Structures are given as structure tokens and as C-alpha cells.
Amino acid sequence: MTWDAALDIAALVLILAGALLCLTAAIGLLRFRDVPSRLHAATKPQVLGLVLICLAIALSLRSWPVVAFLIPIVLIQLATAPLSAHMIGRQAYRNGTIDRSHLFADELADSQRTPPAAGG
């Protein structure tokens, strides 16, 4: 087996794994009932799936300009997915759509009881 064939097989496996992770993320968004579970499905497998697909593209094309193009894509995804999940989760908490009995720690409850100007 040549080096090019091995890289092509590795790229194929990475594409399939990334596509499978993206598919499970989409299914999780549709099937999960509560907001924290949906946020987990929207961020973790989706980001890993995108990273695997970008890695497969880099292996398949074997070009440094392509790698230079893919690195910002991955970094932006790694930066924006947790931020958007945090904002969605916080808004769901404020709207009351999260079942607070299932939360292990509830730091926002303390901040809502104490007024911001109270100094506590």
C-alpha cells in the first residue's frame, strides 16, 4: 500500500466519522427534550464532527494553503459554539424553560436573589 492510498483511506474514515457525528448532533437536537441536552448535542459532537471533516479535507488535498484556510474555520467554530450554547442556556434559564431540579449547581440563583448594587 502506498503512502497516498493510506492517506486517502484515512481521509475517508475521518469524513465518515465526522459525518456520523454531525448526523448524531442533528438527531440529538430533534430528539432531546430539555435545553441542556439539546445544547450538548448542538456543541460537542457537531464541533468534533467539523474538526474531523476539516482534517479529512486537509489530508485529502495535501496542500498548505488549504490547511491555512481550514485552521481559522476550526478556530472560529471552537470559539463560537461554547459561547452561543452559554447564551442560549442562560436565556432558557431566565425564561424558566430549564427544570431547575435537575441542575447540580445553580450559580445564577444566588445572583438573582442578591441585587447587583447590594455588594454581596
Automatic annotation (TrEMBL):
This protein's UniProt keywords: Membrane, Transmembrane, Transmembrane helix
Q: Which domain of life is it from?
A: Bacteria
Mind telling me which residue stretches traverse the membrane in this protein? 6-30, 42-61, 67-85
Claim: Kinase is one of the keywords in the record: no
Which is a Pfam family this sequence falls into? Answer: PhaG_MnhG_YufB
**PANTHER family documented for this protein:** ANTIPORTER SUBUNIT MNHG2-RELATED
Q: Give the family this protein belongs to, as stated in its UniProt record.
A: Belongs to the CPA3 antiporters (TC 2.A.63) subunit G family.
Which NCBIfam families does the record associate with it? CPA3_mnhG_phaG (TIGR01300), PRK12674.1-2 (NF009314)
Full protein name = Monovalent cation/H(+) antiporter subunit G
